[in-house]
Amino acid sequence: MAEELTFDIPVGAGVGTRANADGEPVTPKDAATVILLRDGADGVEVFLQHRVKGMPFAGGMTVFPGGGVDSRDVDASVSWAGPEPAWWAERFGCDESLARALVCAAVRETFEESGVLLASTGDTVVTDTTPYHDAREKLVSRELSLAAFLEANGLTLRADLLRPWANWVTPPQEPRRYDTCFFVAVLPEGQQADSATSEAVGSGWQRPEEAIADAKEGRRMLMPPTWITLAELGEFESAATAQAVEREISKIMPTLVREGDKIRVVLDPA
């Protein structure tokens, strides 16, 4: 049975009522989002970014780092440690090639947008990303692929630092649609998440319940997947506990019905 949720959103949040010009749903693009966690003084904190208002998708929204899969993310030459693509394919219900691309996109986008690098030199997880500043800019501009970046710097992608969390699909009435796999990761020791991305006007760490309270008071805007994920994360006592939980992943495509200044969210399998 579908689960129905209702919550207030500010008028103009930009979801739920836009139709495509020809009436035909757009095919969703594959994407990856990473929920970065750490332990704060009062409990679990999550890294959130406030997107630039002019962005074509989720402009003005508060989101987790992430983005679309690049065609080069499927490169099998990537040095890899942790669960193999077959393991991820089983969790996300896709083929191994896409599973590899999703994990690579998750690592790449997290580094591009927050400066957090889920990689290691040998068995030692990176603690200082300063030496990779120039490479980060080239990844953003697509001058450099993830595989080339890792190889040039003797780095290994650490799939074991990620865990699967959810799979959300943009509703069919939206002009831009994504089939997004959500991952969770704990901030590696010694690393710092930053705001050095052109896609956001600000970012920072916040307790999940505080972010939801800000949304209810109109101080920030959250899309349903972000809101629901934050509500789920608020139930955990530590970042490690949240990352360790075993979750059944199925595609979720919400039905959004605007009623005045509210949106009714019905969650159905996609």
Secondary structure topology:
Elements: E1 3-8, E2 29-40, E3 43-51, E4 62-63, E5 66-68, E6 80-81, H1 85-92, H2 96-114, E7 119-121, E8 124-125, H3 133-140, H4 146-152, E9 156-158, E10 163-169, E11 178-186, E12 200-206, H5 208-216, H6 224-233, H7 239-244, E13 251-259, E14 262-269
Parallel strand pairs: 2-11, 6-9, 10-13
Antiparallel strand pairs: 1-14, 2-3, 2-5, 3-4, 3-12, 7-8, 7-9, 10-11, 13-14
Rg computed from alpha carbons, rounded to a whole number of angstroms: 18 Å
**Text of the CATH class:** Alpha Beta
Continuous helix count:
7
- The average pLDDT score comes to 86
The CATH homologous superfamily corresponds to Nucleoside Triphosphate Pyrophosphohydrolase
Order of helices and strands: EEEEEEHHEEHHEEEEHHHEE
- Helical percent range? 10-25%
Shape: globular
Strand percentage lies at 25-35%
Query: Architecture, CATH level 2?
Result: Alpha-Beta Complex
- Summing up helix and strand content along with how strands pair, one would put the structural category as alpha+beta
Report the biggest beta sheet as strand number plus sense, adding barrel if it closes.
10 strands, mixed
> Residue ranges: pLDDT <50 for 5 or more in a row?
9-17
How many beta-strand segments?
14
- State the separation between the terminal residues, measured CA to CA: 13 Å
Overall tally of structural domains? 1
Per the CATH scheme, the topology name is Nucleoside Triphosphate Pyrophosphohydrolase
